[in-house]
């Protein structure tokens, strides 16, 4: 019977006493005392405890709390290999002259085959003479009296959850080589726990990276119904939350379970990628069931517990189930281990549980050969090796050892070893062994493996935690099942460009596609489910991935409605050029203003011509003589209806502007509309441009669609002569647009007139009655017009008083 006595840490006397009685059968106590197989026990100055799953129990419940006969349970060759690796590591350290010189390490190893029925071995490790007393200042060396300074193991997360609290009670370092549950990173609960295997968080991160790399978004997750599988599933759900991956199906796996319903559900959901996150034994049974049930053409993602299985890749018909990829620990060659097995295995006298004795230090290994152990799955080999060396280096520091000797007089207890363990920093097989603040390893990496057609396990990639290139897969080395192409695993095919996803059901991976309408766009990087509206100054067509900046109006409107061009009087501009038919050509857009210079030069000629005529006669001559032949006459003789240009004061004839096309009729034929200030019909005008008077800028020709302005009775307000044919066509255009004319505020027009005037010409007085055909720019910009865009939408006819 064992007693657990809790001492008052503040006094030297026993405080509140709790007695926990473990009633064990007498033959169990006898077995614990007398089972001293050389495989499981080695004397030394300081002892390391060891918990290894040499056998595994399949029973989940018992009628009474009795110890279990591990030798009667299923033998685990991989667990036995790890057990032998610890023995090798301790003997290698004892033979070393650099680590713990003149100090010998021993071990006490137990076969931890059950989750709930292996307490005798744990109690043996933490007790002294049948007494378990928590560590305190008054009893600092009570636990150390057993010489156990730290414990290596156990292997599974479930086993560790069961026994860890007993070791935490006395702050005995527990260095696990296989417990990967993320729960052990909580130092508030497991303050003396460390591990040399990466947490499930890292393993799941690698699995998610593989799924994203191959774009497998519709997957099933099959996890074991224990601490390891439940923790993995929770982490998987969290990590795929912000990805395109959906967990379409999940199921809890149990050993010796009928998985026919599981595979039927996977087929019903059209899932082609399956993640198996379970212990080795459970995963092997699942794969064998898939072969027997005829499951084909799947992609299987193996966790690190079974990815390096030595038998499954060589099993018959394994290729029919599809392609197997896996995540594994690096397989590092531990020098001398194979030779150790070959030389020592023949000398090992395995314990025999004869005479009805129960013993957790019996292996029944007489039928094994050294080659069987060497060829076994090497998973977790380096984890065991580094755990033993980490404890040895910590003890080396506690004893303040130098190259030749250690200070054996220094007091050693588990708490001092724990303090040095957390500060570990040494090299082992090209790896730097360190632990973070959670007790998790800061070394190591993962390999990505592939089961090839030859039954071998091939390395095709890696995932490194402390590297610039941390993830890599050489998919050219993978031979896929079926047609040899990378399999797909999706609920819905991706939408075409410019289409938004609309979720169909509870899974984000299942969706329909809807085209984004015009005026919207979609950015699948930010949000593949929403069509975003363009800004007011932008536009887009249907199924767009971006918006385009508007120029002055919607491009469709610009194409449908021809633009109008305004001749700028006094601004050194020229009238729009005429076509061969005598009509003005359609005005050009703002992008084609490169011809402005030529128009300004023509305007200068108009101004000089009119100025010279005013100086000679005082007012425009209705019948000036024309010296240059009109456009279209090759012989140079004047046409009957077209007089020559008026002579200038200097005796020269003003040149006529280019006027392609047929002969133009009289600008004011009979019945033509007159200006409101014109007393009598004007005389026939010349074909030359209008002249500029001394008191104002040149006046635009009548060929331009006009705005009418009320003017003082001044000769300068008279419109210039115009061709009759052009006058009629222009009037037709004006009549068509008459209904669309709108009134504009005087402020807008004043700004417009300022833009039209010559430099240094001041606006004195204007009483305006204005009709404008295009008001969009003026009204939408708070009556402010730009020099470039605003003017091209207005046609103005005005007269005003101005002076230089």
Please provide a written account of the structure:
The chain has 804 residues and is of the alpha/beta class. It is built from 17 helices and 28 strands. It has an eight-stranded mixed beta sheet with strand order 12-11-13-14-15-18-19-20, sandwiched between helices. Strands 2-6-3-8-9-10 form a six-stranded mixed beta sheet, sandwiched between helices. A two-stranded parallel ribbon has the order 1-7. Helix 11 packs across helix 12. The longest helix has 22 residues, at 596-617. The radius of gyration is 49 Å and the shape is elongated. The N and C termini lie far apart (122 Å). The N terminus and C terminus are likely disordered.
* Class from helix and strand fractions: alpha/beta
Number of strands: 28
Determine the mean pLDDT.
74
Report the span from N to C terminus.
122 Å
By DSSP (H or I, 4+ residues per run), the number of helices equals: 17
- Give the radius of gyration: 49 Å
Strand order of the largest sheet: 12-11-13-14-15-18-19-20
Described by strand count, sense and barrel closure, the largest sheet is: 8 strands, mixed
Percent helix, as a range, is 10-25%
Strand content: 5-15%
Coarse shape: elongated
**Poorly predicted parts:** 1-36, 141-145, 351-359, 560-586, 616-638, 640-656, 659-718, 737-745, 757-804
